[in-house]
């Protein structure tokens, strides 16, 4: 028996991007069907580090990031839980003087956006953050950046969308999508046929399939950030911190565990599954003991990794298709999509309902890749960019 | 043989020892890695230092086997590379990652025998996290290794052959056993009669523990259901139901467990295919009768491939080694292999019957109060888990872990995942086989943050 669905909007991929779009669209009164090949919020959106930070983003991303910044404190009202979101502050550390020079320069560049960055030289940083130790050349602090629990936040967006009337089909992969006279026809799962007016491609690291089906492949590759978590320990680290260059980032969750990341894991034979790398994990552990000597007797209890889409210029694709009316893409967040995702959902809603959005997204157009020579398409993202 | 890397054995219990012996006999020099202080594994665990207790004191009816295996292993030492006190915490492709002397080491392998044994299977009940509650295995380890008991007045509770065995070992060592409380009905024990044809010696020994306990005045009760551990800071007693009545018994320690669960995380990390086993209510690596897995060059032996007991562990250890030798291109005695396969089948037949005699309490979920802590590491209660299942209409174990925190702590589900699976399957009326299994992830046990690069 074929199950048939029709909706104003069909969304492929129930990560935080797709789920927040579904919720926003439902609130705008459109009918929505959200599909995920696995479980909503179980991929990158559910297993990431949980950094909710604006600091360190490219200028192009800051308006988007600022929009998200307005949404995060409203989680309780939007999805029923606060998702352990807190504006703990985000501390960016410089290991070397030249790194600190970059932080100073960044603070100058982004002044107009009002991130209120505070700069500290190494010694000052250790006075202001007395739990900090080791070789620190300087630091930049963004007091209103923060952290949240991805495991809870991302599935909760999907649940809120469902509670608001969206049809949510989990374990239902979209296999094929074609343009019809008045929209799209999709095949999904073992037995689903879907028709819709608008189609949103928020399939994360898998999104290139649909982009390619509509003749606009993007040079999307995959990265597998490597993560480590300790046992719960006394609360001591009040901020989320990351090192310039991306080699180390760390936060302590309310339960007391330190979550830390850095370096890359690797894909298994089935590239949908990945493993953290031991070399990366050991490097992260070593750095943690230098920065936080109070962790000397602690144990780590688990390593993990997740699958994230990477684009060569470290910016995502967000916006309308360059080939197909009614199709919108939002993917390839390069290790930093958690914070911006709720705003991306809102922007997708703007685009579907009114054809435009007040948030500048021109830099994220998929058309920037349309005329790329094929060899360029293969180039992977630099491997030391920032995840968190 | 054209292998360039020596074969590696993880685990020096009866399975690993027999595998090592077989490989050495074929002219190979295996690396044997074991987390323990001294080789022997669980049943033949040795004291830290020789403390004057004889093999009979320590191993009772199995003393001769223990002595033989220890002697055999000591005799192998010049022909193997033995790494005691070394924890294998990850397998990445053809590399083992281990911690020894507080340092990180990597060992490449072409052929690997995993003989990692088992740990107690636990089901929570109110108060099970109070100081003074131990697993049966831990109660036995305290006695064997350190020569001490877990308390002055100990209740033994649960189901499984270890229940009677360890209670008897306590009595024999001069400990005071307050009672043996079996969660299975007496009638279940009648199944042992049909085990006779498989292993009369073992059945007689097993039955003799109950008789000897009774003759020493230890009360045995059947069909018991623990309702709570009494005491607020530490164990002061146990309340339990027997029939319709609730009883209380004073004690200062409780040893409990419901048979064993195999340690399969390393097999999982090495990429082995798993299947659900109805009898053991858990997922087991798929192997052929000699212990070959779906992962090239990875062999399984002993309780880590499915609970079958110490004698079966010896058989499967030898079989896995012979399979490894055969696969590397050396002929092995086919008569020996088929005799071992036959012997292994008999042991499996025995196992089926033991499972009936010491059954899993499959009505556990119906009677467990919501406030019971299900995950002790993360302090997640049964009702939180049930609410999470209902709230998210969850049907899959990893998802339940992610959303409830249950299984996310120090033990990574090694202790609580059996109970988690029971709760999920009962709440959603799904078969245990249909709710998935927790994905293994390194490290298989907690590692010190200070772990330093060592060598390879
Ligand atoms: C380990 C790690 C750490 C990170 N740390 C941070 C951080 O601290 N801060 C930060 O801002 N960002 C971080 N990120 C990045 C962030 O997690 C992602 O950018 C963001 O979650 C992307 O959301 P998404 O919805 O696009 O992708 P996903 O969450 O991957 O969702 C895509 C979904 O699409 C589904 N799908 C794919 N193909 C199909 C199909 N054909 N049919 C149906 N469904 C399909 C998938 O199953 C998946 O659920 C991290 C990422 C990782 C992996
Ligand atoms: C606590 C306990 C007590 C038991 N007592 C008895 C008993 O008294 N009588 C009886 O008949 N049966 C007993 N059993 C059952 C008994 O374990 C088995 O029948 C038998 O020991 C199985 O042998 P094996 O070689 O498969 O595993 P084991 O004897 O368990 O040996 C496994 C070895 O592998 C090592 N190991 C495991 N994982 C790793 C790792 N990641 N890295 C390094 N080393 C590792 C362990 O330290 C251990 O030495 C007991 C089981 C347990 C869990």
Explain briefly what this protein structure is.
With 388 residues, chain A is an alpha+beta fold.
Word description of this protein:
Chain A is an alpha+beta fold and about 400 residues long. In chain A, about 30% of the residues lie in helices and about 30% in strands. Chain A is built from 11 helices and 22 strands. In chain A, strands 1, 2, 8, 9, 10, 11, 21 and 22 form an 8-stranded mixed β-sheet that branches. An 8-stranded mixed β-sheet of chain A has the order 5-6-4-14-15-16-13-19. Mean pLDDT of chain A is about 95; it is low at about 375-385. Chain B folds into 3 domains: about 10-120 and about 260-355, FAD/NAD(P)-binding domain (3-Layer(bba) Sandwich), CATH 3.50.50; about 120-260, 3-Layer(bba) Sandwich (FAD/NAD(P)-binding domain), CATH 3.50.50; about 365-435, BFD-like [2Fe-2S]-binding domain (Arc Repressor Mutant, subunit A). In chain B, a hairpin with a 6-residue loop joins strand 13 and strand 14. The model of chain B has no long low-confidence stretch (mean pLDDT about 95). With about 450 residues, chain B is of the alpha/beta class. Chain B is built from 14 helices and 24 strands. The interface of A and B includes residues 275, 278 and 285 of A.
Architecture blueprint of SSEs:
The complex is a heterodimer of chains A (388) and B (456).
Chain A: E1 3-12, H1 16-27, E2 32-35, H2 44-47, E3 51-52, H3 62-71, H4 75-79, E4 90-94, H5 97-109, E5 118-121, H6 122-128, E6 138-142, E7 146-147, H7 150-163, E8 167-169, E9 174-180, E10 183-188, E11 192-201, H8 208-213, E12 221-223, E13 225-232, E14 240-243, E15 249-252, E16 257-264, E17 266-267, E18 274-275, H9 278-291, E19 299-305, E20 308-310, E21 317-320, E22 327-331, H10 337-354, H11 374-378
Parallel strand pairs in A: 1-2, 1-11, 2-8, 4-14, 11-22
Antiparallel strand pairs in A: 3-7, 4-6, 5-6, 9-10, 10-11, 12-20, 13-16, 13-19, 14-15, 15-16, 17-18, 21-22
Helix pairs in contact in A: 1-7, 1-10, 3-10
Chain B: E1 8-10, H1 14-25, E2 31-33, H2 55-59, H3 63-76, E3 81-83, E4 86-92, E5 95-100, E6 103-108, E7 112-114, E8 118-120, E9 133-135, H4 136-146, E10 154-159, H5 161-172, E11 177-182, H6 186-189, H7 192-195, H8 200-215, E12 220-221, E13 224-230, E14 237-242, E15 245-250, E16 253-258, E17 260-262, H9 265-269, E18 274-277, E19 282-285, E20 298-300, H10 310-327, H11 334-357, E21 373-375, E22 380-381, H12 382-392, H13 397-404, H14 417-428, E23 447-448, E24 452-455
The complex binds flavin-adenine dinucleotide (2 copies).
One flavin-adenine dinucleotide (FAD) binds next to helix 1, helix 2, strand 13 and helix 10 of chain A.
